[in-house]
Amino acid sequence: MHAHGLSSIVRLFLRTVIGMVMLGLLPIAAHAASVPSCQQQASDDCYFSFQPAPGSGQLHYYASQSAEAAAGPTGPRSALIVIHGHPHDANITFNAALAASSLADTRKNTVIIAPVFQVSPDEASKCSTAGVPTAQTGDLLWTCASWLDGGEADNARGITSFTALDALVVEVTRRWPTVSVVTIAGFSAGAQMVQHYIGFAAADVSSKVALRYVVADPGTWLYFDGVRPVADGDPTSESTCADASCRFHLAPPINACPTVNQWKYGTDGLPASLKRAASVARAHYASADIFYLEAAQDSGTGRGTYSHILDKSCAAEAQGSFRLQRGLAYAAYDRQLLAPNKHRAVVVIPDCAHDVTCVFTSPTARAALLSPSH
To answer: Which residue in 129, 267, 288, 332 has a CA-CA distance of 20 to 30 Å to 344?
Structure first.
């Protein structure tokens, strides 16, 4: 064939291919070009699953690295497991952690994991986020709220959200064997889950890796006795405890609230499924490596505080009026009664309200979330 004839065929082929692309008739190539990196944002390609116990059902999670890509001695040294909020916004939480890791330049050495505690289809309309896959046949299922405080899966007796998280830590160390430090962090409802989990985490999990915890902006806290910190000044005022200089005195709850020490606010009536006495859980909590983060503007009823969804039960109000107050109060309780030798402090993140991306990507939060590898 003459060169002129060959070039005509090539030109015709190229025009045909370009035309098909413009008409959207090459979906495989177009999809391949549009798939985002799992180190940039959540996608279905980053979505994995495993069974927390044989025959128990599946728990899904996003992961920023595949085990195959991170194989060998150059694999990640740290893992950051981030827990979604009430709307099951695991993709948003995952993306916030990815952004923090990118800013801290730890994407190669840290694998980001974001589990999804799935709910049944009839519950999903009350607590779901666009982009997160819905529950599939064989998935472990909780209600919109039961996973927050270690509740059992609706379809797997004996599998609690806490034991599922225990199993996820083991799964991470199995898939990424170079990991030696695991940080478990939560924001908002996810922080409630993490803060409650700390005292009930499986003891054998921490023997495999160094465990750290970051509790950021929970609505309520787990107390281990009847004492509550009371803010100096008017606790209902939006200007009271507006920064870390707030001062507290410890006293028994002064309000007549019959549920103030009930689980999930206290340790009375611990569910039998947690299989740990309150005194043992308290000792575990006191010995743990914990960081507290609070958004400076997550107080009062202003824009971005989502105060309309804040727990305002009498047991919650005994902990403070707003999230920032409650976080500062718990840090004071921790320093004075739980672990005075740990010198735990709550770090207030400036210029943030109740926003996981703002909090997680702040320089102070990045230092807590993305610790150097041990």
So the answer is: 267
Q: What is the pLDDT of residues 126-154, one digit of tens each?
A: 999 999 999 999 999 999 999 999 999 99
The reported pTM is: 0.87
Q: Is the separation of the CB atoms in 292 and 359 below 8 Å? A: no
Query: pLDDT tens digits for 161-215?
Result: 999 999 999 999 999 999 999 999 999 999 999 999 999 999 777 677 999 999 9
In single-letter form, the type of residue at position 329 comes to: A
Which pLDDT band, with edges at 50, 70 and 90, does 242 fall under?
Answer: low
Residue found by looking up tokens 């064997």 in the block: 177
CA–CA dist 179, 109 (Å, integer): 9
Q: Are 289 and 339 in contact (CB under 8 A)?
A: no
SS3 228: strand
3-class SS at 287? Answer: helix
Give the list of residues 6+ apart from residue 24 with CB closer than 8 angstroms, or none: 30
Q: At what angle do helices 189-197 and 161-175 cross, to 10 degrees?
A: 80
- Identify the residue whose tokens are 């800013």: 103
Domains annotated for the chain, with CATH where assigned, are 1-34 (no CATH), 40-369 (3.40.50.1820)
Phi and psi torsions of 182, nearest 5°: -120, 120
Enumerate helices (H) and strands (E) in the chain, giving the number of each. Answer: 11, 12
Considering only CA atoms, which of 279, 236, 282 is closest in space to residue 255? Answer: 236
Tokens of 116: 């999804």
Angle, vertex CA 336, rays to CA 331 and CA 339, nearest 5: 80
